[in-house]
Design brief:
Layout (H helix, E strand, L loop, with lengths): L1 H31 L3 H9 L6 H22 L7 H7 L1 H13 L3 H17 L3 H11 L11 H22 L12 H35 L13 H17 L3 H13 L7 H18 L38 E2 L10 E2 L10 H19 L9 H24 L3 H9 L9 H13 L3 H14 L4 H15 L2 H13 L4 H21 L3 H21 L4 H13 L3 H14 L4 H13 L3 H14 L4 H14 L2 H24 L1 H7 L12 H5 L11 H21 L10 H20 L3 H14 L4 H13 L3 H14 L4 H13 L3 H14 L4 H13 L3 H15 L15
Antiparallel strand pairs: 1-2
Amino acid sequence: MRIFSTPAKTLKMAAARKTVSRLENDIEKFRFECNWEKVLELVKGIKTKTPALETLGHLALGEAELELHLLQYPPTHQNIELARKELSNAKHHLQQAAKTSNKHAVKTEAQFLLAKLYYATGDYDDALKFLEKAHPEEISVQETSPARLKMLAESYAIKGMCLECLNNKSGHKHNKKPDKKEKEMEILACYEKAGDLALLYLQRVDQKNAGANVSGSSSLGGSSHMAGPVLETAVQKAPLLRIQEGKLDEGIDRFRTILKAVEVRTSQTMRATVARELAEVLLRGVCMHHYTPPSAEGSILSSLKDERSGSLKSSGSSFANLRPIASRGTLGKPKMYSTESIFVPKNVEEEALLLLLISELQVNRDVVLSRHKEHSESRKHTFLNATAVYDLLAITLVRRAQYNMLADTLDRTMKFSFEEFHMWFQFGLALASAGRHARALRVLRECSRMEPKNHIVLLEAAKICYDTLELIDDGIEFCQKAVAAEGNPAAVSRGYLMLGMGYGQKAHEVTIHKERQDYQKKALQALNKAYLIDSQDYTILYHTALQLALSRQIPEALQKVRGALKLNADDLNSLHLLSLLLSAQKQFSEALNVIEVAANQYPDKISLLFTKIKLEEVCLGPEEALVTCKQLLNCWKQTYDASLRTDEVVRGTGLIEKVTSDKRSLAQMHISEFSDRDSGSVQNSLAASRVEQALSEVGASSTESTIPRQGSQFVWNIQARIWLTIAELYLLLDKPTEARACVQEACAIFPLSHQVMFMRGCVHEHREAWSEAKNCYDSSLSFNPTHIKSLQNLGRVLFYQENYQLAEKVLRDAVNIDPTAHMSWINLGKVLEAQGEYESASDCLLTGLQLEATSPVQPFSIVSKTF
């Protein structure tokens, strides 16, 4: 029996050694992969009593418990008490490993981990003692393993954090050095050393992982490697400390150095955070005139040469097209990208935008989409990171007026922004700024559902309904919700103001007299409620005056507009309205003085100049008004000619320059200050303007004699309106030939405009060519059926042609559209008189004379409605 006992015992011992060796390798493998759950599973399943394995088990168990705790609760001041309670078992295991280990490497690792644990529990003195015992400065960076390299990096980070915490405690024994500057430099040096080693560690891990893939081995799970909260804090701390010390340029250079390190999969999240922080610093702290672009000199970029391959593979890197370089003799530094053929930003916004787009790509990829409860914390964390990036992107893109790009960017956030009001509201505002109003309204409706009492959302939606989409009923509904919601009195006052504006627009839209009166009454009631809440808001008084003016309550309107000017003497719209009200009272000289003052203050407001021309026509005669028109044409050339030449260049650069302070569309401008419209149908006028603009462009492009106009249609519309005004004055001077030439100039710009057709009809009517005049007025009304002047003149032409029944029908339509247009009543009275209906004719003529007594030189509707 003894013959066979020795070999059996030998085989048993060999099998035990093999088991121990396999367990050691598995533990080290999972420690390297930072797979702490698997480490705990292996260590707790160890049944052998081998001393070497027992020491490793203590070390691995303590490290796993510490790392899992720190991943869930980062080492911050708020988590100190929790760490002291939950890390007692990890502390025991690490102390046992430090005492029982005969290996210097294992003992050093245990001391590093104990220093990390003491830092987490707030025992900074003990943490520094263990770091001094471990002597991190004696460890060779070249020869150490990635796991020990990570511990070495963490040791410098923890030393810096401990010194910083102790430095903040006055009277502590570590504050013996009188030179505060020297202590700050030591802390900064620790953070920078830790940051360099952390990046080097991540590069080596990725290189080892890539080597395993090349050799046919299974992947080491590179994507699961994490720098951890300690190293992430250290990487970000160094540049921030320099900035706090007032060394902004040095802090920015440190940020850029971190970003120049060769990217690996495990550093992408950290790089995204650093890129976002640098972008925030650039946007908030760097003046455009004192900006220093990144250096393109390769000499300042040192790197550590990789002994095995000399290059790193950066799988999935956004900088994969860049070539990493290596320099000899630079120990402890990460490998850096070469600066050859690299894009260098030229200004602050360019660099910030580049950084934020890189960050946006990463956070969009990392965000958690699962709605399960177990993922709620990680989902919240990743969403906050994404929100920070997108908020900075909004600031950057808005500065460059890139609203479409911002809207498209925020559109990508909707997949993870379920029930997240902030992102939805940002998206809605971006869509509105980009001119995509229909979708913006849908998004704002969703925002209103999330926060039903948010006044800003409701009023912004109402503004879009009123100003662009002409959904007046929907706008009124939003305003009613705003005034019903309790909250800030200023917001409620603004809600009543916009509610009054909505009712006023509704009154302008309907054709039934009683309905119009009801809406006018509701508008005034809402405006009065707004004034009772906020009597210092001049816009409330202005809109009240405008509503009273449209109702032809001229004395009351004058009182209100003068009250508005007392609160804000420089308000453009109040000055314009005051001038029109004075002209309605036939105080033309006073009105002209007011409009001249306003025009001097706002020389680029074309609507003021057109009103000034009308007043000069009445006060000084057509000749003087014609001189002003010629000056206006020269002013247009000086102001806008250069902008037309550079329009394509500006668009090519992606920058939208403000040619004028008015950003409304051409269709809207047709029905505001550039329109003679005193009709009541806003929607018809909008549709007419859009159709005629499109047809004018098609007609211009298909006609050999007419060259399509390049540049802003807004600018060309101004010139066309000037030519038509000059034509009108020439007709008053009995110069139809010159008037026809001016109409031809306007026709070259917008050949199918209803205003051009109307003025062409006026020229024919002046020559008593009734048939041609009738055809022109019919053409004008085919584009805009609510153009009052076309209806009035058509009725007059039909009267001259003795077509009394059709003339009566046309003029009654004009009266129904706008019952305050005095010429409609006067012409209708003449037609009825010709038909022998003397009583009705007398009533119409009397009504027309009464309205003429309160009629301004321009319709009150040309005054802007400020939202």
